[in-house]
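Onboarding guide, step 5: your first structure request.
Type a short instruction followed by the sequence, for example:

Predict the 3D structure of this protein.
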Amino acid sequence: MLTSPENLIPLAVFVAMTLGAWAVLGAVAERPKTTEDRLKRLLDPNSVAISHAKRQEQVQAKVAAVASKLGQSLRPSDEQELGKIRVKLLNAGFRQEQAVAVYYAAKLFGLLIGLTAAFPTCVFKYGMTQTAYMLTACAAGLGFYLPGFLVGRWKKSRSESIFLGLPDALDLMVVCVEAGLGLDAAMRRVTNELAQSSPVICEEFAVANFQLQMGRTRRDVLRDLGIRTGVDDVRSLAAVIIQAEKFGSSIAAALRVQSDAMRLRRRQLAEERAAKTSVKIMLPMVFFIFPGVFVVLVGPAVLRMMDVLASR
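The system replies with C-alpha cells like these:
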C-alpha cells in the first residue's frame, strides 16, 4: 500500500534532505533582505563586494577556529614531527597559521565520514560480522589518510610547476641583473612579467620580496625560499646566490650557470618521459585498440568459415 511504512521512509528521507539543502542554501546565499540593501547594490557595487569579502573572512575565521579545536586531539606533541607537517603543508602552498590544525581536522572529518558512511551499509549487507567490521575499518582508514594523499599530490604538482618555470625566471633575472638592476628589483620584475606563465614561482618570489622589505636578511630569505618550495633546484639556487654574495663574484654569471644546468635537467626530464611513452601506451593498445583491429581483420574470415561449415 502507498501508506505503508516501507513506502513512507524513502519519502521522508527525500523531504528531509530537500529541506536541509534548502536551509543550507538559504543560510549561505547572499541576498538583500531589505529595500535599503537593494538600493546599496544598485548605487554602490563596491560596497557589496567589500561586505562579501568581509563575510568570507568571517566564515574562514570561524571554520579555522572550529578546525583548530577539532584537530587539537590529533595534533602530535613532538615538535620535530609537527615541523615536518608544517614543511609539507608549506610545500603544498598552505601558509596559513591554522593550516596544521585544519589539516588534522580534515583527517578527523574523513575518519568520521568513513565510519558513518560505511558502517550502516556494511551492517545492512553483511550483518554484525567480521567482514563488516573490516570494511568499516578500511573505509575509516581511507577517509583518515585521504587528506595526506591530497596534500602530497598538491605538493608534487606545485614542485613540478616550480621546476619547469624556474629556468625561464632565471633567464629573465639574468637579463635584469646584467641591465643594472639589483637582485631584489630583478625578482620583482620577474614576479610582474611571469605572473601568467609561471604563477607558482612568481608567488614564491613575491613572498621573498615581501620578507626582504620587512627587514629580513637576504641569506635567511633565500634559505626560507628553498625550504618553503621543497625543490632541490631552488635550494641550490639559494646556496649559489649566498656564496656569490659572500665571495663577491658576479651574481649574473652564477645565475646563468644555474639556469643552463636547470634547463639541461628539464630537457633530460622531457626525454625520459618521451622514452616511457612507448611502454605506457602498450596497455591501452592491448586492451582497447588490438581487439577492434582483430575483429575488423579476422571477423570477415570467421564469418566466411562459419558459412562454409554451415553449408556442409
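Each response can be followed by summary notes, for example: The two ends are 61 Å apart (CA to CA).
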